[in-house]
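tool_log.txt
---
The assistant was asked to compare two proteins side by side. It first ran the structure predictor on the initial sequence, then on the second. Raw inputs and outputs are pasted verbatim so the downstream comparison step can read them without reformatting.
(1)
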Amino acid sequence: MSRDVLRTLAEARPAELDPAAPVDPDTRAAELGRAMRAAPQRSKRRARVARPVWGGAGLVGVAAAATLVVTTMTGGGAGGGGAPGQAGEAPLDARTVLLAAAEKAEAAPATGKFWRVKRMYLIPVQVGPDARRYTVLDARIRETWLARNGTEWSGQRTAGARPRTPADEKAWRLDGTPARWNLGTGDTVDKAPVYVQTKPGPGRLVKMSGKLAMHVPIAGPKPTFADLENLPADPVKLRTLAEKRALSDGADGRLVATNEQARQAFAAGKLISLLTEAPVPPKVRAAAFRALAGMSIVKAEGKAVDARNRPGVAFTITVPGAGATTTSRLIIDQRTSLVLSEHVASKVKGAKGGKGGLGKERTTLYLGAGWTDQAPQAPSLP
């Protein structure tokens, strides 16, 4: 069993449930803007160009898909794909749709006691006998609640694994329809075994100790609600800040953007994070949509539906690099400005197929994000 898969499943567990990981997984979120590598530049201080990063929990593991709900909490569903528009339909203009979404976002309410974000991670895992491997989607729900005073609660539950495709289902049945797979020892300090099973698990809720810093990269390392209120509502200024923050957050030193396309990708990663989990004011979220609308790398693909058949418009952001080409595909509900799903995939140049190929895509599902007066509780199944 791939160690990357074991690490992915371990990281899907909230940090407070991992005795060896005091840092919330979302603080290690990898973003699209960091998924590109160009030729490194030599300098006195080590510099690097971002490359595909397949760790972290904001984009979880070897495959994560993100359903991003931007306005008030809804009962939403998990999206991870969707069909493009029907043949013969007039192509949709990315700028027009994103600007319309900005108007919807600007009118969204921003009142409530808690900022609540509910996510579902769909993690493709290869299981079964060596001679007949197949893939199951391990669904894991994570829900966080943040009070305005900085107190945070975090909940988790497994939602059950299922075969990914009809072919996988056929292989699963030939395997005797197992309900549980032991993937071996995980990478955590406690060396606990990692399991995937078809039956959903119980929900758990943990109150985090102390006051945790919000993870809003564009606003700095430890932003307060006041810092978020003061983020630029002007799309040009917000995009400039997004690029600046992206280029300075490299773990091994400053990142390097060698061309306009790379700079747009870096900025896009930070802007998209504002549309997913950050409790920023509606005017700032609207500015993020408007900033994305001005980027040439953002292309409208056409009408699409997510995994729960919610209709929207698909957008792609493709960034070719020296080592890999990374594509992010988002589906946005143009009626509400909700980002329904994001699928990120990286194709490594020269890479051959096989077991290693599973680690080049990811999907994170956000079932809801917004202000609510509802008290924190363990995650429910969608």
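(2)
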Amino acid sequence: MDFICVDIGTSSCKACVISDTGAVLRCAKRLYPLQCLQEGWASLELRLLWNAVQDALREIAPAAANAKTMMVSSLGETLVMLDAKDRLLFDEGITYLDSRNVEIWKTLEDRLDTESIYQITGKRIFQIASTNQYRWVQQHEPEKLEAAKRILFVDSFVAYMLSGEAGMDYSTASNSLLFDIHRHQWSSELANAFSFDLRLLPRVGKAGSPLGKIRQEMAKELGLPGDVTVLIGCHDQIAAVVGGGALCAGDAVVGEGSTEALNLLIENVDIPKAQKLQISIEPFIDEERYLIMLSRLTHGTCIKWFASDIQPEPGQDVYDMLNRHCPGDSSGVTFLPYLSNTYFNEYTRPMGAFIGLSLGTTRYQAYRALLEGLACETRSMCEELANAGIPFHTLTATGGAAKSEVYMQLKANITQRSIGVLKDSEAGLSGLAMMCAVQSGCYETIKEAATGFGISKRMYEPLEDCGEIVRRHSRAKEAILRLYQESSFSPLCGNA
């Protein structure tokens, strides 16, 4: 039996046909740009995204004749608003990197104290929640919100367009700042506090549970089998954790995507302790387990930004070229990967910086510094867990940047941890296929599916001490923070 799996990220979508043994039978990828219509804005053109998904599905359709189920994962916060005829009302999908979230949150943060919000939602980075997007549309384009008959997130939007049925899983719902992660239901208390109409949101259920059959007209248009069952999707971080083989308490997966997300699986959630430590929590695929979530919001986006204006050598992928020429050190150059002001939201401008450049600095030394800066951020997340007394046993890296041997070895050196990298780097798609396989009866549990899929890893062990790089990164970060705090270099919000 085969499965159709779709993963929708910040910069691209992928569709694959995967067998019940984990073999990738066919895969297609489509890129789309992040729209920056004004300084600090970062959105997705939703029509373009939906067209990209359809194109990718058409490409894999010839290999999907034996597919019985399909499932979608996506970035977790971006809202999609539809009218009574299922037409997009607001084509701008505001992402977690968008400064409008920060601006709106400053007008909402006194609606309910943050302690109460955290106790219900398990979230601490309130300014990236989709509640802020809803409020922004309400303030700036109220006529569109008034015409809305349905509000979805990206994965549930795609599943709805495919099946005609609306449903959302616990993990995606939890990114709204409206979801009670203990009762696994929408919170009327939060909805009232933020003036959000819960009637517009879909029912909530477990990831991987059935939504309905694919619409016949959609199956015909895309060339897919007419008897495929569409399942409730999930946050892409959940799919990556499943596909990364993190299925026992203490297992951690670090997703190397546009955002770097370190996700640790736990069985019992200690809200007072987690709140004291300022750690975000998200429901897992069932109602018994949760993820501790740490993240750095500009990760792969930094690499893409750096590479965007570089002309690769003939016949060479730009990332392969950068990795091939990456030197053994950065000659003292330091990179701070804070390219979005959602890191330090009290400032109007982001705090990203290269420090220590000289006339002799090459692009490859700058690239090495960029990788060092990203790896130092990974180390800081590991230290947060260690300082909190929260142990984790395994660390598995997944996603696009995990394909770089240079970067993975550097990450192992800087974190001083063993890092396993899946030989199949598309953990999110494999995780979706595992959930499809369980729902289809090929396996009884996700653990059985992981065994059947034969997850294998390449291990990177620390080979050298990079303490000086870590100390230099820490000093640079502290200095930049002082610069922003003590001067008018970047004015406080409201004083620009």
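---
observation on (2): Residues 129 and 337 are 22 Å apart (CA to CA). Residues 363-387 form the longest helix (25 residues).
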